[in-house]
Amino acid sequence: MRAVPLGDSGITIALGTVRSPELLKTVHATAAALAAEKLPEIQDIVPAYLGVAIFYNSLHTSYSELAAKLLAACKRESNSRPVADEIREHEISVTYDGADLEQVSVSCGISVGEVIARHSGRRYTVDLLGFVPGFGYLSELDPSLQLPRRLQPRPRVPAGRVAIGGAQTAVYPLDTPGGWHIIGRTDETMFDPERDPPALLRAGDIVRFVPSP
C-alpha cells in the first residue's frame, strides 16, 4: 500500500499490481472506508482496478498531510475490516434485439436464445465506473460469450444499449462512440445529472439482466 501524487490535487492509493476479484474487493472496501472518514478536504473518491484515486482541495491541505491521513485510514481499515457500504442489487430489464446479436451468436457458435440465456443468467459485479459518466464495467461475462471488441467501433451508440466486450458487459449511459458488441437495449436511465447520485450504479453493486417478455 502506498500513496502516489496524481496531478496537483489528487492522490492514488495503490493497493496492488495485478487485477483480481480479491483485489477489487479490497479496493471497494478501502473506498468505502475512506468515504466514511468524511474528511472535509476530500472532493471525490474514485475506485479503480488496482487502487483508489482521491481528489482534494489543495488550497486547504498539502499532499503530504492528506497522504498521511489516507494511509492511516487504510491501515485501520485493513486491521478492522469494517463492513463496506451495503451492497445494492439492480435488476435491469433488457430487450434482446441488438444490432450485433446475430453475429455474436455466429461467432460464439451458439443460438441466439442461448446467448440471451447465458448473458441474463449471471449476477455481475460493478468493477468500477469510467469511460463516460455512469458507464459501469461489469464482470464476469460467461466465458462462452467473451469476444474481442469490434474491429471498427461505431461513431455513435445510443444510450441504453446493452453490450459485451472481452470479459465484461455494460449499458451505455449516454450517446457515445463505442466498440463493444450490442446485444440489447434497456429503458433504464443509467445516468441523470438531475438525480442524486446521478449514476444508477456504483462500484461493488450487483447487476442482473432480465429479458423483457
What does this structure look like?
The structure is a single chain. With 213 residues, the protein is of the alpha+beta class. Helices cover 24% and strands 31% of the residues. The protein contains 4 helices and 13 strands. It has helices spanning 21-37, 63-80, 101-108, 112-120; strands spanning 2-5, 10-14, 42-47, 51-56, 89-94, 123-129, 136-139, 154-157, 161-165, 168-171, 176-178, 181-185, 206-211. Strands 1-2-4-3 form a 4-stranded antiparallel beta sheet, covered by helices on one side. Strand 9 (161-165) and strand 10 (168-171) form a beta hairpin. Helix 1 crosses helix 2 (63-80). The protein starts with a strand and ends with a strand. The mean pLDDT is 93.
**Unreliable spans:** none
Sheet with most strands: strand arrangement: 1-2-4-3
* Beta-strand proportion: 25-35%
**Sheet of most strands:** 4 strands, antiparallel
Helix content, binned percent:
10-25%
DSSP E strands, number = 13
How would you sum up the global shape?
elongated
The residue-averaged pLDDT reads 93
Question: Any chance you could write out the topology, listing elements then pairs?
Answer:
Elements: E1 2-5, E2 10-14, H1 21-37, E3 42-47, E4 51-56, H2 63-80, E5 89-94, H3 101-108, H4 112-120, E6 123-129, E7 136-139, E8 154-157, E9 161-165, E10 168-171, E11 176-178, E12 181-185, E13 206-211
Parallel strand pairs: 5-13
Antiparallel strand pairs: 1-2, 2-4, 3-4, 6-7, 6-13, 8-11, 9-10, 9-12
